[in-house]
Amino acid sequence: EVNRQNLRPGFIEEFADTLVEDEKEARLHGRFAFLTGLVFRIFSRPRYVLKEDLIPAPDALRFRVIDVHYLRRPMAVLYVAIGKDNKAHIYNEIWQTHIASSLGKTMKEFEDIERERKAQIVWTYRDAIYYVSYIDPISSTIDNITGTCFADELILAGVEDITPGSKDKTRGDKAIKKWLEEDRIRINPSCQR
User: pLDDT tens, 136-153?
Assistant: First the structure.
């Protein structure tokens, strides 16, 4: 409210419409009651984090979600499976520096273990393990010096089927909050971040 005179009419109201309820007190009024960002009040470890690591069912749809950070902090890769019960199971994570070949190698090592498991069971849905890999759209930005982009480097490192995700943070936050409210997310305890 202090800077309203410096903003165009309606800006604060438009901005407020982009926020999830948990962020409004902090972002609009400066009252930070908890950490902000991708932190949800509804989340609690006892409710959503499993007591022991579980391997997703063989017929679960599996996704990789790749978040590129370049130099700011390590990149993240989440492995998520959606079972017949329509619940998301976050069963592995990788946090690593910004070198695509190194990240690609780590991803391939984990995925080779999964392929070995697959060979030992009857696979009931197609032949691939991952159907879609969502990646931050910034990964397709061409570097002016190298002439390549991070997504291309991951493909060269052997990571296939990369699809740019959405940058719509508000929609993503609302979807995650809804899945939490509907008790549709489970996380392996080995996923610490």
Answer: 888 888 888 888 888 888
